[in-house]
Structure to design on (77 residues):
């Protein structure tokens, strides 16, 4: 594991310290979980945005429609 040093606003550090004390877990574990959750949310947003772009793209919609038609034909067969 690599050591990372950073600075936080005093109020945020106080909230972190309070949460760590209440939960009886180290501050770095809270930061690790929070960062992991945030990065996962960024991935989800990127995924959603890619679908929004595809939805607006006529070529993508045509390709999807053709794919669905072929899939439905396979089911019927």
């Amino acid at each position: 594991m690599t050591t990372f040093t950073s600075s936080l606003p005093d109020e945020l550090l106080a909230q972190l310290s309070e949460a760590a004390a209440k939960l009886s877990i180290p501050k770095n574990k809270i930061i690790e979980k929070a960062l992991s959750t945030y990065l996962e949310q960024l991935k989800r947003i990127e995924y959603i945005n890619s679908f929004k772009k595809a939805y607006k793209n006529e070529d993508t919609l045509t390709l999807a429609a053709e794919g669905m038609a072929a899939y439905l034909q396979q089911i019927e067969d």
